[in-house]
Amino acid sequence: MSTVLVAGTCDTKGAELHYARDCLNAVGVAARIVDLGTGQAEREPADIDAATVAAYHPDGTSILTIDDRGKAVAAMALAFERYVHAQSDIAGILGLGGSGGTALVTPAMRRLPVGLPKVMVSTVASGNVAPYVGPSDICMMYSVTDVAGLNRISRVVIGNAAHALAGMVQHPIPDATGTKPALGLTMFGVTTPCITQLTDKLSADYDCLVFHATGTGGQSMEKLVESGALAGVLDISTTEVCDLLMGGVMSAGESRLDAIAHTGVPYVGACGALDMVNFGARDTVPDKYRDRLLYEHNAQVTLMRTTVDENRRMGEWIAAKLNACNGPVRFLLPEGGVSAIDAPGQPFYDPQADAALFDAIETNMQSTADRRAIRVPHHINDPGFVDAALDAFADVMPATPV
């Protein structure tokens, strides 16, 4: 029978872990405590002890004797991630901890499929949780008090977390898409008209999953590609590459496009929003960029127009990634402009910068029968570009997608 793992360090959070397990058991959810402690202090009993988890690390149980706390936490986090990946009976994970405990538990949560219940009660949940959540669907709950014993606050918070996870486990959401294959599409505000037209035309035959290209959006899409959940990808908005190479705030990391490459998923990409690097409020723009063409999208987001040299650099980076792809690839170059504000009369209109991008992609991409760059004489949001994207999609997709 599938069970929930209640994970944390039994040497410092033993009472809280037992309380959470008891809350789950009381509402009919089977749960087991997993001890992730690496210290030698006396600890509360666990259903799965630290040595069992540590054995999944490449160095085995020797990691339990590491003196350096940071290294010990990192080693046990890897061991728990590998332990979780090896199990087939996990119904969900409930984690409890401070910053160290959160770093111990969340890598394993991120390894699990999207949709499997994951709740992390943490002292750091009221701050920047992006490093812990990443592209996953982890529910972060702020502990309010420290996770340091049971009291009138922690009992309620931990109990609520346990009951929330129990509800997820006991009431799974039925699949409402039937047998329609799923597609991943990337969208940014300035490419919304394009994606809206594409989903309107494809939704009768496909379950269209649109990802906001804000860094974690691209990561989330590629996580689903990695797990085999997507039959194809229409990566229209590759703007996260701008932020990676120019130091913006919405980078998806150096591994962007790697899942596309090694899975061979049918892929149609485009230059959507490669005209802009994202920063926060205007006063957060780095000093070296203060004299550049800046556009205040709103009070919290300032956009910087990419230059000819930056576009050339992005084109080379994208081409190198596409050259590694094992599956069918079509990459579209919208000659009329790459975003809503890269059009005649708009603030980022710069045909010379766009041309540098397109030329770099064409020059550096190793064209084959299965890998081609295609110039499209339309703006990215025009119906003509949408038709070209649909034609390219039909070209790369098998007759009967699975």
Q: Major sheet: size, sense and barrel closure?
A: 6 strands, parallel
Oligomer state equals single chain
Choose one word for the global shape: elongated
Structural class: alpha/beta
Number of strands: 14
Order of helices and strands: EHEHHEHEHEHEHEHEHHEEEEHEHEH
Instruction: Kindly provide the radius of gyration, computed on alpha-carbon positions and rounded to a whole number of angstroms.
Output: 24 Å
What is the average per-residue confidence, as pLDDT, rounded to a whole number? Answer: 95
Helical percent range? 25-40%
Task: Supply the number of helical segments.
Answer: 13
Q: Which regions have little confidence, pLDDT < 50, spanning 5+ residues?
A: none
Which strands sit side by side, in order, in the main sheet? 7-6-8-9-13-14
How far the N terminus sits from the C terminus, by CA atoms, comes to 29 Å
Percent of residues in beta strands: 15-25%
Task: Write up this protein.
It is a single chain. Helix content is 38%, strand content 18%. It is elongated, with a radius of gyration of 24 Å. The model has no long low-confidence stretch (mean pLDDT 95). It has helices spanning 14-26, 50-54, 69-86, 99-111, 130-133, 152-170, 192-202, 216-226, 240-246, 258-263, 308-323, 351-364, 383-396; strands at residues 3-8, 31-35, 90-97, 118-122, 139-142, 182-187, 207-212, 232-235, 267-270, 276-279, 294-298, 301-305, 329-334, 371-376. The chain is built from 13 helices and 14 strands. By secondary structure, the protein is an alpha/beta fold. Strand 13, helix 12 and strand 14 (371-376) form a beta-alpha-beta unit. Helix 7 crosses helix 13, helix 9 packs across helix 11 (308-323) and helix 11 runs parallel beside helix 12. It has a six-stranded parallel β-sheet, with helices on both faces. It has a five-stranded parallel β-sheet with strand order 2-1-3-4-5, with helices on both faces. Strands 10-12-11 form a three-stranded antiparallel β-sheet. The relative contact order is 0.09.
